Amino acid sequence: MKRLLPAAVLGLLIATALPASARKWTSDDGRFTTEAKLLGYADGKVKLKKDSGETVTISIERLSEADRRYVVLVSRSRKRIAAKMDTASNVSFAMDVQAFLGNYCMKCHNPQEPKGGYDVTTYAALKRAGNKGALIVAGKPAESRLILALQGEGEIMPPAGSAQPTEEEIAKVSAWITAGAQDDSLGPGPQPPPVAKPRK
Questions:
Q1: pLDDT at res. 109
Q2: For residue 195, with 0-12 CB atoms within 10 Å meaning exposed, 13-18 middle and 19 or more buried, which class applies?
């Protein structure tokens, strides 16, 4: 069964964070109406933009009950989305991705044992294509073999019986790739486990 990535949903959430379509707004006494987009809400004030381009600021108390509920719901949604986007933008290769690779991938994908032609011990090695293409494609998690394998596309990785990453951990790696897969490390990072030499 494929793992579901919260980060895959992030793109949809970001789309909903864009300025809302124009809607009909009504005053609390029902005497006035206008077509406008919601630009923002802060300190009890609602900022609207009419189709003419004119912007108006009005106290939320002067709006109908339905409009007040709409403003509160949209504002809460935008704050949650902003928090998610901020978390995604703070994913670090050195602090997050290298640790992930060390915990779940490095045992089988290192210079001594590069299964599938993949070595994840360094950023440079991670960028090299293996037998089935590139592990990471900057800005495109859906085309990155690393994410596809974690989602169960083809041979699922890590294999059954191994420690499995959480959805949140996978989401962080996906967010890092989406943000451009930048290298912010200062050193080689986690080293692969030693390979036992056969006795003579």
A1: 92
A2: exposed
Pairing of strands 45-50, 33-42: antiparallel
Average pLDDT over all residues of the chain? 79
Q: Looking at the domain assignment, is residue 193 inside a domain?
A: no
Residues 104 and 131 in one domain: yes
One domain, residues 128 and 63: no
- Number of domains the chain contains: 2
Distance CA 156, CA 31 (A): 61
Could you tell me if 55 and 27 lie in one domain? Answer: yes
Report how far apart, in Å, the C-alpha atoms of 42 and of each of 38, 39, 72, 105 are.
Answer: 12, 10, 10, 46
Does residue 75 sit in the same domain as residue 99? no
Q: DSSP label at 129?
A: E
Domain extent, residue 68, equals 6-89
158-195 pLDDT, tens digit each = 888 888 898 888 888 988 998 899 998 765 444 545 54
Instruction: Region of 180 please: left (phi>0), alpha (psi -120 to 50) or beta.
Output: left
